[in-house]
Amino acid sequence: MSFCENLSAFLTKEGFQPEATEFGLQFKVQGLDFVHFKDDNDEFFLNIFFPQIFPVTPENKADVLEAINTADNDVKLAKGAIRFGNAVWVSVECALSEGYDLNAIVPRCVNALVYYRDAFYKAYSQTPSGQEEMKKAQEAAQAQA
Length: 145
Hints:
By secondary structure, the protein is an alpha+beta fold. 46% of the residues lie in helices and 27% in strands. It is built from four helices and six strands.
């Protein structure tokens, strides 16, 4: 059985209802979307992605990269990158050994991905673009009050 099939069986058993796609699997944990890209040539390679956690524009790209660098240095296991040119994705990728235990691995990976997202948001909020966006959001909230 391929890793993708093992992961799908595990997620189904845990009640996460994975959806098979042309690229691998999509699944939700606590309402958050995650993706696994299948690799039929390596049954011991795990990857789980937390897609599109933040939009990237020409105006914020430098600050996004700064926030990715900060989060990458502060968080172990999960790492961020700009994928497809327009969004930050977070990933966990690792080689597994025979007899791996998805009961131990998958929850830790998902927790690391969510932790990274929060670290990225914190780092971005300290950049000039992030501070400007926070100011605009606060002004909008005050205008509605």
